[in-house]
Amino acid sequence: LLLASACISSELELKKGDKICLVGNALGERLQHHNEWERDLYERFPDLELSVRNLCFPGDEPVTRIRSMNFGEPDVHLAHSKASVVLFFFGFNESFAGPNGIAPYKTEIRELISHTQQQNYSGKGAPRIVFVSPIAFKNTGDKNLPNGEQHNTNIAAYAAALRDVCSEAKVGYVDLFAPTLKLFDQTDKRLTSNGSHLNKDGYAALATILNDRLIGPAAKKVNENPKLLAAIDDKNFHWWHRYRAVNGFSIYGKRGEAGSDGTYRNREVMEREREILDQMCANRDARITKIAQGQPVPDSIDDSDTLPFIEPKSNVGVNEKDPNRKAGKLGTL
Questions:
Q1: Does 23 score more than 90 pLDDT?
Q2: Are 162 and 133 in contact (CB under 8 A)?
Q3: From 69's CA, which of 44, 224, 260, 297 has a CA 20 to 30 Å away?
Q4: pTM attached to this predicted model
């Protein structure tokens, strides 16, 4: 990874113990699957004991966040993660509305900023906010895909609108449109899967671009430590299963009220598992910090300090004629 020009200004000053939460669309969401950005962050600031939690969902917009029943409002999840820094990724989905959508988009961003500035997720005051623009659309040369000309016209307009609102509100703004447009023009390497979504190589290239503009150019070339990258992959694997649990209907949906033996509901059993995953993520945060600092760590992680699982009784073989079952007092796992 090459060092960037020293003329690039940073938008965020990190503090020791910062809890960084990503909120927004697929551009941000996939940063937990291609973790060069996060590895770069820890290598630059090994002593800050940072943690990162990805709360993005593909398709998310400033107001519209499609979730399962009773999943919880965004504020609930940001408070759970004790966010002291929030990075917002918006603009690409909204750009399909074209010029007519810019005014309402700016209104939604203003309202989101105002709302977020009134929150205290970390218990230490309002979070610092940075908005990250969408990337450019890459012309892949594939006749089955758009060439991106109209896409880039719209994306540029929405990136500019986002910049203007951030400037007006005095919050951070990172422009990814201009540098990725330049990057795409300078290489024939296919950095996206379809012109709009970065592939593995694209995210590796984005890592330096994003961090240089977010926190300033690195003082020295990052080491690209594979052990650190593997540790971050592992942490994000566990976080994914905590935040993106696939059986939501049995956690926060209606089936969460059901249970096996009248003692535990599905909700209690599965929320205990998510609590354990939180503890496992915290253990991995500590491991990441040690690796970034050059401290020795064992090959395996000791999760013996986590809570025990709840072991409910199975309802297999329950008498179908049981009046409690007929009355709906017994459910199923």
A1: yes
A2: yes
A3: 260
A4: 0.91
Do residues 266 and 237 touch, judged by C-beta distance below 8 A?
A: no
CA 298/CA 320 separation, integer angstroms: 51
Longest dimension (CA), the chain: 76
Tell me the per-residue pLDDT of 26-80, one tens digit each, with 9 for 90 and over: 999 999 999 999 999 999 999 999 999 999 999 999 999 999 889 999 999 999 9
Q: Is the dihedral of CA 36, 39, 41, 43 positive or negative?
A: negative
In this structure, what token pair is assigned to residue 195?
Answer: 């012109």
Non-local CB neighbours of 81 within 8 Å, separated by 6+ positions: 19, 21, 53, 55, 121
**Cα-Cα-Cα-Cα dihedral of 210, 216, 220, 222, to 10°?**
-30
pLDDT bin (cut points 50, 70, 90) of residue 7 is very low
Helical spans, DSSP H, in 26-132:
26-29, 36-44, 74-80, 92-95, 102-117
**CA distance to 55, 85, 161, 285, per residue, from 120 (Å):** 17, 11, 27, 22
